[in-house]
Write a structure and sequence with these properties.
This protein is an alpha+beta fold and 371 residues long. It has helices spanning 2-50, 76-79, 82-88, 102-111, 123-136, 150-155, 167-171, 195-200, 209-222, 354-365; strands at 56-58, 64-68, 92-95, 116-120, 140-143, 172-182, 185-187, 190-194, 232-233, 239-240, 245-250, 253-257, 261-264, 272-277, 296-301, 303-306, 312-316, 319-323, 327-341.
Length: 371
């Protein structure tokens, strides 16, 4: 009895010591869960505000045509049998030949009865054909067989399986997105000035992109007179006469990490994204943290003007172009009708918002709407 009584007493004495710990752990868990719930609710609300649904419309086309650049992406169109697959989907393929006028081909296809015009090629080619689609009042579609396919990526298409883009013509839908214009020339991604433009205009750029760009940056950093002589204004009202680096994009880009580095959250915000580095600091610019780059501006606008006493070198959607001064860049809000496979979700979702985005998808599927 003594041992039993002692054991009972020891058991009785130990309980008060355990309960506070358990209660503390439980309270901590509940508090942590509550904080997490508030955090996720705020994040979902923020995502909902930014993830306003795109204007979508069910559409049916009878005679679509697709222009195919067989050389783009090192022959990706031929490797995946795009022309044959297009025919099976009821799309008339038009294979681009050396010396062909791409804009003329697009106009001729529409004049011959095409009620939707598509392009399979690089981003620069996509912009030209998209411009014809807008001009002629027909929807546009694309097949990602280029090298990087930045537009298709932000549009929500599968770059690794380009043939799935043809589903836009089988059972797809039409969405409205923005496009940009630079002195009448349409662009879908961005227009670069300064060192990047200087690099793409060099003959050696195609074979040695990184080395050519590094050389252009090094030259501009060591010699102010080597920087692009462009006149433009930043949001603080200051006028600048040199442009070491200047980027104007169709909607705002955000850093997305390797391998694309820049992605767009929206394709229909109605604003250009503008980034300007107004002076190069001393030192190794290539490896310098962004917070050490003084004179770095980022802003949004519906239009932007650049002036110069010489031809304005630009890299438009990766293509080397020259513009006369003055150059006006502007946005055309929801001016491009694009055919995409049903359910395609344009725009980039940052990794730290992926869970919130999934919750939002589930909420929409369940018929929940945030109040």
């Amino acid at each position: 009895m003594f041992a039993r009584s002692k054991g009972h007493e020891a058991s009785h004495v130990s309980r008060p010591a355990v309960r506070p710990v358990a209660l503390s752990l439980g309270a901590g868990f509940v508090a942590g869960f509550a904080v997490a719930a508030v955090f996720w609710r705020r994040q979902v609300r923020a995502l909902i505000r930014r993830a306003k649904p795109y204007v979508r419309q069910q559409t049916r086309v009878e005679s679509p045509a697709l222009i195919i650049n067989r050389w783009s992406g090192d022959g990706k169109a031929d490797r995946c049998g795009l022309a044959d697959e297009a025919r099976k989907a009821g799309i008339r393929p038009i294979v681009l030949e050396r010396g062909d006028d791409l804009i003329r081909l697009a106009h001729d296809a529409i004049s011959a009865g095409a009620d939707a015009i598509g392009m399979a090629g690089g981003d620069g080619s996509l912009g030209l054909v998209a411009g014809v689609a807008v001009e002629r009042g027909v929807p546009f579609f694309c097949v990602p067989v280029g090298t990087r396919n930045h537009f298709a990526l932000d549009l929500g298409l599968d770059r690794d399986n380009p043939l799935t883009a043809l589903d836009a013509l089988r059972d797809g839908e039409q969405i409205l997105i923005d496009y940009g214009v630079a002195n009448g020339r349409p662009f879908l991604n961005n227009v670069s000035f300064g060192v990047y433009a200087q690099a793409v205009h060099r003959e050696e750029y195609r074979g040695e992109k990184a080395a050519t760009l590094a050389t252009a940056i090094s030259t501009a950093a060591s010699d102010v007179n080597a920087q692009a002589a462009l006149r433009y204004m930043t949001p603080d009202g200051r006028t600048h006469e040199r442009a070491p680096l200047l980027l104007v994009s169709n909607n705002v880009y955000t850093y997305s990490g390797y391998p694309d580095y820049g992605r767009r959250l929206r394709m229909d915000s109605g604003n250009l994204g503008i980034s300007a580095l107004t002076n190069f600091p001393e030192g190794d610019v290539m490896s310098m943290p962004l917070d050490q780059l003084l004179g770095l501006y980022d802003w949004e606008a519906t239009s932007f003007r650049i002036e110069s006493g010489e031809a304005i070198l630009a890299g438009l959607d990766g293509e080397a172009l020259q513009f006369e001064s003055p150059l006006t860049l502007s946005i055309r809000p929801r001016g491009l009708r694009v055919l995409v496979p049903a359910g395609t979700q344009p725009g980039y979702v940052p990794a730290d918002e992926a869970v919130a985005a999934k919750l939002l998808d589930l909420a929409e599927t369940s018929g929940f709407s945030d109040q």
